[in-house]
Amino acid sequence: MIYLDYQATTPLAPEARRSMEPWLDRFGNPHSPHRPGREAKAAVEVAREQVGGLFPPGGALLFTSGATEAANLAIKGAAWAAPPGRTRIVTLATEHACVLDSTRWLGARGFEAVVLPVEPDGLVDLDRLARAVDGRTLLVAAMLVNNEIGVVQPVAEIGRIARAAGALFFCDAVQGFGRMALPAADLIAVSAHKLHGPKGVGALWMRAGVALEPLMHGGAQEGGLRSGTLSPALCAGFGAAVAVAQTRMAADAAYVKALWARAQDRLEGWTLNGSARQRYHGNLNLRREGLDAARLMADARTVAFSAGSACASGSGRPSHVLTALGLTEREARASIRLGFGRDTTAQELDDGLALILAAAERQRAFA
Question: pLDDT tens for residues 116-126?
Answer without folding.
Answer: 999 999 999 99
